[in-house]
Amino acid sequence: MNDFLASDAVIDATHPAITETAARLRRDHPGTTDFARAAFEFTRDEVKHSMDVGDRRPTVAASEVLGHGAGLCHGKAHLLTALLRAEGVPAGICYQRLADGKGGFFLHGMTAVQLDGTWYRQDPRGDKPGVTTEFSLSDERLAYAPDPSQGEADLPGVFATPDPGLVAALRSTDDVIALVANGGLPGDLS
């Protein structure tokens, strides 16, 4: 089986809530690109970013994010990836290294979707003042543009599974807001 279609404990594309949601989105948007856009917009708009709404719950697996309706960027990327895979669209996880404003870095999670043999990065983080994301197959419309002079970077690669160090950090807490505030997110891939 293609790793970019597989289900696992975090990108649990075969979970009933994921498959039901993906099937509903596909029914309403039957074309593959239209479905991918609808899955992106659902994840971006219907699932809130934990930091934006003060939701402290650590949602890591796609089904947890969907069930709670909130997650950090990583959880939202896991959800979008799972929704796409549930309907047979290859998808994976990709990352940026961003400055945390305290002299360190953190990983920002996104999804890459493969359409017509090409990978396209999509950022379902969710909009807020100063941050706007859009589904795009031409110019990327991501939440953040890394500043190399600050050590920030678009990290290479599309991964079938999330970074294990990141998953361990997210699973190690019962308060993701404190985790982020205290610099507990990894600043690079493990």
TrEMBL record:
Taxonomically, the superkingdom here is: Bacteria
> Do you know which Pfam families this protein is assigned to?
Transglut_core
Location of the Transglutaminase-like domain: 21-124
InterPro entries of this UniProt entry? Answer: Papain-like_cys_pep_sf, Transglutaminase-like
Question: Which Gene3D superfamilies does this UniProt record tie to the protein?
Answer: 3.10.620.30
Show the PANTHER family listed in the entry: BLR5614 PROTEIN-RELATED, CONSERVED INTEGRAL MEMBRANE PROTEIN
Q: What is this protein called?
A: Transglutaminase domain-containing protein
- Source organism of this protein record: Kribbella lupini
